[in-house]
Write a structure and sequence with these properties.
By secondary structure, the protein is mainly beta. Helix content is 14%, strand content 40%. The protein has a single domain, classed as Beta Barrel (Lipocalin). It has 2 helices and 8 strands, in the order ααββββββββ.
Length: 139
Amino acid sequence: MIRHCRFSLGLFSLAALVLTAPAALAQMSAAEFESYVTGKTLYFGSNGREYGVEEYRADRRVRWSFLDGRCRDGIWYEDDRGMICFVYEDTPDPQCWTFRRSPGGGLLARFEDDPEGTLLYEANQNEEPMMCLGPEIGV
């Protein structure tokens, strides 16, 4: 069974507000990020659509899915620019993001801290482990 979260229009409005706000929100440190995410499963949206889900475990271990039932295990770390970088089992190149707290209390993540880059926002969270399908078996 794959769990999908329901996205609230209020979160979309909040994300639009943050995108147009002139004042930048403070970037989270690795310690702040770790304190916020450890033990949680966070659902992310982008441009008003479901984007993916990530489960944050102890020791900076993570599990990611694009909500398709296929999960990728990995780790996260802080790089020398202060970004949070993820390396997954099938992708050796780090994917680095800046994280900020939104005015509504959730997370905002910007890929490579590029103003034109992908912006994700936290749409939901819980403490339940992700549901992942097993390996594909076929003939």
